[in-house]
Structure formats: C-alpha cells, structure tokens
User: Fold this.
Amino acid sequence: MEQTNPQQLAGIRAYLKQLSDPQRPLEQIRREMSEAPSEQPTIVGLITKPVNVNGLYGEWVSTAEIEISGDGSKPVVLYFHGGGFVAGTCRFYRDMAARISHFSGVQVLTFEYRLAPEHPYPAANEDALTAYYWLIEQGYSASQIMFGGDSVGATLALMTLITLRDRREALPVGAFMISPHADLVHLDGDSYVTNKELDPTGSLEGNERILAAYLSSWQSVPPEILSPLRMNLTGLPPLFIQVGSMEVLLSDAVRLREQAEQAGVDVTLEIWDNMWSVFHFLAYMLPEAEQAIRNIGMFNRQKLLECNR
Assistant:
C-alpha cells in the first residue's frame, strides 16, 4: 500500500491541531462543519437523495454504479455520524458515505439526529433507534442492514445494537466502528495520557465537554448504556473497529476488542500507524484513508453476502 510522506503527515497533523481547540464556541464548530464540504473535493459520481426518516432529515448516498432503491430490495449501510453529539450533518458526511458505498457495493443511509445541548440524552439514542425502525418499515430485513459510524456515531451504533439485543429484537448483520468512544462516562483509557501530545484532533478536555453537553441533567447518575465497555456484549453481531495509533481513543478501541472477544463476539481491530481520529475524511488525499475505507467495504460485502445469499 502506498504511504503518505512523513513530512506531509506532520504538516497535516499540525494544521488539524490548529483547528481543534476544544474550547472553541459551539457556533464555530457547527459553522466550520457546514462550510467544510464546499472546500474539499468529493468522490466522482456522488449521488444523494433526500428522505424523511420519521421526522428526521436523511439522505440516501451512493455513487453512479450503485442504485438507490430505498425499498428494501437491496442491502444498506445505516450510518451514524460523529460530531460529539453537538454537530454533524448529512452534507458533511456525503463524501465519506459515498466512498463507503462505493467500496461496499451498497447504498448508504445517513440521517441527522437531534443535537445537544439543545437536545440532551436520550435524544440521539432515541433517534438512532428511529432510523433503524424506519428502515424496517420500508421493507428492509435486519439481515439486509449493516450499521456504521465514527466517533460518537460509532458509539451510537454500538449502543443501538445493545438496546436491540436487550429488547430481543432482530439485529443487523454487523457494525463497523471508526474511532469509537467505548466509554463516554469514565474517560479512563491510558491513551488519554500517552497520546495527549500526539493526537491533533482529540483530547480528554474535548471529550469531557462532549459528555457534559449530552448528559445535561443526567451527569450525577450517567446511564449505563453510555458505557458500552462496562456492559455485557454477549450476542452482538460481528464488529469491525478501526482506530489511529496516535489518537486518545486508542485504548477505548483496544479494550472494546478485548471485551467483545471475551463475550464471544466476532471482532476485528485495525490500528492504523501514525493516524488520528477519523482520518478517513482525507481519503481524497491520503492513501491510508482510502485503504481503510476499502477494508470497511470488504467487511461489509462479506457480512452482507453471508446473510443474503
């Protein structure tokens, strides 16, 4: 695999660090996320189709060679966006969703869950379930659905799996998780310290801010579901985890893999050297990011094919 020049990587990390002040105002975070797509190239053949997901704005995303059916006739990836519970839009995630669609060979559904602090816990968790149930209402079976997400979106995917399992409802074929927060309450992974100076986008301080915004009045007694790492993971479908070696969430990913293995879950962890949280956004310029998404596509194809022969 082609690798990015170390000097170029260092320059990218320095640039990202300048943009990632954990104390910047919420309005600035949302504005930057809104403006970013117009400043970056997108994958050739990007196709989007807006849809109402039981009151939530959603988008079907694919590339030219992949048909958007939206009627349960073809498998789908349900993608939960990141953004620290306080930001994130379908538009911001179009390019990455299209690349996932391209390498997976299936359509992707993104949606905009309610954001904190205006809508604290359990709003995002409820909306994640709403999106899954909406797909079922459209004619999709659980065996046609793959979950995916990044950062807190990856955590939402995992929490939704646990909730569905506890309700004894049909589970999707699996989930891929990019830089998941395996524990949004305790924030006690070793890499919060060991990678403090290496991570250009993440920090303990930033994640404490995320937690405060989403928990709101629940801070004194945080819900158990926000600490998947400390829950029983038995019975979950296959999991595919990707994390960068430089990010503060590295320990979360490693411990999640260990916890899932102990519970008998089929789990794979990829640690990408010299990478940071959700480096996948730079797939248009980083060969490592494109390969990481290609690996996600291979996982999705394999698991969806196994369940839809």
Strands lie at 47-53, 56-62, 76-80, 107-111, 145-150, 174-178, 239-244, 267-272. The chain has a mean pLDDT of 95.
